[in-house]
C-alpha cells in the first residue's frame, strides 16, 4: 500500500532500532506523574476516536500510549502535504482525505475542540471554526443552480447583484415548478411522521426501512428523487441515501433542521476550519496530548490481540519493514476503523464476545476526496456545493475564502496557487460522462479529469465560465486510493449504514473486561460514521474503562442529539401505538 512505504522505522537496522525504542517507551509514565498499577492504556489507532480517548484518559491521570499504522496522526480527518509542491520557502500545498464539515448539531466534538489550546484563541481550536452563509445545488442541462442562504452570524451575506438576484429567482422557480404539489406535501408528511415517531418505532421499524422507500422515491418524479430523497441527504449525511436506513438518514436530517431553527445547536448549520486541518486542529491537539504525557508511535499496524485468562495480555504490532513487537498494557482501546479493527480479532477474541463477530456484517464503501489547485481565487459560493446531477455524487467547497489568517499564494505551493477546490467523490461504481467508466476502473489521472468535467457540466452550463481549464494548476487525489485502470484499492474507506446495520454495531464496552471499542462504527446516538460519532464513541469507551477500574474520576459527557421537548407527548403516544401494531397517527401511507 502506498502509505506504508512512507512510514518510519523501515529497513533492517532501522527496524531493530525502532523495535527497541518501541519496547523502551511503551510503558513510560506521564511526565511528572507517579506510575500507578492498572493505569497503563494502549490506544490502538490515532484518528479522531483514538486521539479523543487519549485526551480523556490523560486528563484523568492514565498512562497512555497511542499506536497508529499510518506515518501521521489524525486518521481520515488529517490534512497532508502534497509531495514536491513547496517552493520559495512556502509550505507544501495542503491535501486531505476529504473536506471538513462540522455542523452545529455536533455537540461532543466541539467540546473537545474547546479544550485544545490554540494561541490567541479564548476557546481553543473551536475558535477556528468558520460558518458558511449558503449552500448550492448545482444543476446540469442549463438549469440555474439553486442557492440556499443560511442565517449566520459573522459570515458574509451572499452577494446580491441584479444578475445574482435574477439567477436565484429563476433557480427557485425552475426547481419548485418541477416538483408537484403532492410530492412536496408527501415529503413534508414523511418528516412529520419521523419527528413524532417514538424510539421503539424508530429502532424496530424505521431502522429496517430504506430511506428511499420511506420517502416514496420510486413512485415520484426524477426531481423529487434528486432534490429531496437523495440531494437533501448528501450535504448532511455522510452515507449513501440509496441504501441507507431511514433511521440513519432521518436522525441527521432532524438534527440539521433543529440546528437551522437554532434549537439545541453548538453553532451554525455549516462550519469549516479556517486553515488546513492539521494547522487548525490536529497538530495543536497532538502537541497538547504530548504535554499531558501521551506517547505516540506511528507506522505500526496492529495484527493481533492475544487473550489469556479472559483478558487481553498484549497487542502484536508490525511495522512496514516486517519487524514485529508485542505491546503490553493494563487496558486496550481499539480505536481503528472497523475494516481494520476486525482483522485484529482472532477466533479466541471473537468467541469471548459475540458482538465482535457481528461486526463482520458491517459494510464500508468509497467516499474519497480530491483537491484541485487553482491559479485564481474561485470562491463560487460561500459554502458547500452539492453537484446534485453528477453520476459520481460529487460535493465540493472552495477553501481559501475561509482561511482568514492565510494568504494562499504567499503561504503555500510555488506562489502561483490562489485557491483549493476540495471535492468529495461518493459514487465510484457508476459510469462517468467523459470516459464512460466507473471511477474504480479509471486511472488516477482519468478520475481527476472526469471529476473536473462533471463539475463543469453543472457550473458552466448557464453561460458563466465558473471553472476554467486555464486556471487549473494541479490536483491531488487521496494517496489511500490505488488505481491503474484495472485494479482498485482504497485503504481508507467509510463505514456506511444499510438497513439493519444498527443491530450489528457493537457497544464501546466488550465482554473482555480490559478491551474497549472506539470508532465511528460503535453504536452511539448520532448513528452515523462521522467525526462526531467517533468522538462520542471514544467518550463512551473511556467511561466504560473508568467503570471497569472503579475510578472516581469524572465521567466524560456524552451529549445526545437534540429532541424538541414539545413533541415528547406525540412520541410517547407513538410508542404505545407501535406496541399495539398501529401506524404513527400522522402516517398517511
UniProtKB/TrEMBL annotation:
Record keywords: Signal
Domain (Amine oxidase): residue spans on this chain: 48-545
Classification via Gene3D superfamilies: FAD/NAD(P)-binding domain
PROSITE patterns, A to Z: TAT
Signal peptide bounds: 1-28
Listed InterPro entries: Amino_oxidase, FAD/NAD-bd_sf, TAT_signal, Zeta_carotene_desat/Oxidored
Keyword Signal: yes
GO molecular function: oxidoreductase activity
Protein name listed in UniProt: FAD-dependent oxidoreductase
Organism this protein belongs to: Streptomyces luteoverticillatus
Amino acid at each position: 500500500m502506498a502509505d506504508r512505504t512512507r512510514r518510519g522505522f523501515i529497513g533492517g537496522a532501522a527496524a531493530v532500532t525502532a523495535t527497541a525504542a518501541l519496547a523502551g517507551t511503551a510503558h513510560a509514565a506521564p511526565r511528572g506523574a507517579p506510575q500507578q498499577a492498572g493505569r497503563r492504556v494502549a490506544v490502538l489507532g490515532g484518528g479522531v476516536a483514538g486521539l479523543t480517548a487519549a485526551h480523556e484518559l490523560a486528563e484523568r491521570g492514565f498512562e497512555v500510549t497511542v499506536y497508529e499504522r499510518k506515518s501521521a496522526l489524525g486518521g481520515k480527518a488529517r490534512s497532508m502535504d502534497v509531495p514536491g509542491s513547496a517552493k520559495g520557502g512556502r509550505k507544501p500545498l495542503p491535501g486531505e482525505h476529504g473536506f471538513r464539515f462540522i455542523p452545529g448539531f455536533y455537540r461532543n466534538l466541539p467540546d473537545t475542540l474547546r479544550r485544545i489550546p490554540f494561541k490567541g484563541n479564548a476557546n481553543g481550536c473551536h475558535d477556528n471554526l468558520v460558518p458558511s452563509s449558503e449552500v448550492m445545488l448545482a444543476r446540469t442541462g442549463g438549469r440555474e443552480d439553486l442557492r440556499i442562504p443560511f442565517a449566520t452570524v459573522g459570515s458574509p451575506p451572499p452577494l446580491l447583484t441584479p444578475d445574482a438576484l435574477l439567477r436565484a429567482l429563476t433557480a427557485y422557480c425552475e426547481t419548485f415548478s418541477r416538483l408537484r404539489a403532492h410530492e412536496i406535501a408527501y415529503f413534508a408528511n414523511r418528516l412529520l411522521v419521523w419527528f413524532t415517531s417514538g424510539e421503539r418505532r424508530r429502532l424496530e421499524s424505521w431502522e429496517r426501512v430504506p430511506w428511499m422507500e420511506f420517502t416514496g422515491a420510486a413512485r415520484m418524479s426524477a426531481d423529487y428523487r434528486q432534490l429531496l430523497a437523495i440531494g437533501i441527504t448528501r450535504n448532511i449525511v455522510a452515507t449513501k441515501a440509496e441504501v441507507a436506513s431511514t433511521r440513519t438518514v432521518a436522525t441527521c436530517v432532524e438534527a440539521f433542521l433543529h440546528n437551522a431553527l437554532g434549537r439545541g445547536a453548538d453553532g451554525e448549520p455549516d462550519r469549516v476550519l479556517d486553515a488546513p486541518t492539521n494547522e487548525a486542529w490536529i497538530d495543536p491537539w497532538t502537541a497538547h496530548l504530548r504535554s499531558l504525557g501521551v506517547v505516540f508511535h506511528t507506522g505500526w499496524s496492529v495484527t493481533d490481540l492475544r487473550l489469556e485468562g479472559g483478558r487481553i495480555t498484549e497487542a502484536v504490532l508490525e511495522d512496514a519493514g516486517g519487524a514485529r513487537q508485542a505491546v503490553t498494557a493494563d487496558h486496550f482501546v481499539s480505536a481503528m476503523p472497523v475494516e481494520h479493527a476486525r482483522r485484529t480479532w482472532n477466533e479466541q477474541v471473537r468467541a469471548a464476545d459475540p458482538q465482535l463477530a457481528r461486526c463482520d456484517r458491517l459494510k464500508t464503501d468509497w467516499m474519497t476526496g480530491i483537491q484541485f489547485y487553482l491559479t485564481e481565487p474561485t470562491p463560487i459560493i460561500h459554502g458547500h456545493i452539492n453537484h446534485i446531477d453528477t453520476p459520481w455524487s460529487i460535493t465540493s467547497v472552495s477553501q481559501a475564502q475561509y482561511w482568514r489568517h492565510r494568504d494562499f499564494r504567499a503561504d503555500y505551493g510555488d506562489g502561483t496557487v490562489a485557491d483549493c477546490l476540495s471535492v468529495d467523490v461518493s459514487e465510484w461504481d457508476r459510469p462517468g460522462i467523459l470516459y464512460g467508466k466507473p471511477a474504480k476502473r479509471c486511472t488516477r489521472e482519468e478520475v481527476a479529469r472526469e471529476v473536473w468535467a462533471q463539475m463543469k457540466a453543472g457550473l458552466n452550463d448557464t453561460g458563466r465560465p465558473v471553472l476554467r481549464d486555464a486556471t487549473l494548476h494541479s490536483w491531488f487525489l487521496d494517496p489511500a486510493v490505488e488505481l491503474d485502470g484495472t485494479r482498485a484499492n482504497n485503504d481508507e474507506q467509510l463505514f456506511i449504514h444499510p438497513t439493519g446495520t444498527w443491530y450489528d454495531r457493537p457497544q464501546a464496552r466488550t465482554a473482555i473486561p480490559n478491551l474497549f471499542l472506539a470508532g465511528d462504527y460503535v453504536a452511539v446516538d448520532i448513528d452515523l460514521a462521522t467525526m462526531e460519532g467517533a468522538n462520542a464513541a471514544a467518550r463512551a469507551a473511556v467511561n466504560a474503562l473508568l467503570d471497569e477500574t472503579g475510578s472516581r474520576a469524572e465521567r466524560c459527557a456524552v451529549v445526545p442529539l437534540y429532541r424538541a421537548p414539545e413533541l415528547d407527548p406525540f412520541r410517547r403516544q407513538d410508542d404505545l401505538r407501535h406496541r399495539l401494531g398501529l401506524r404513527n397517527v400522522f402516517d398517511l401511507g
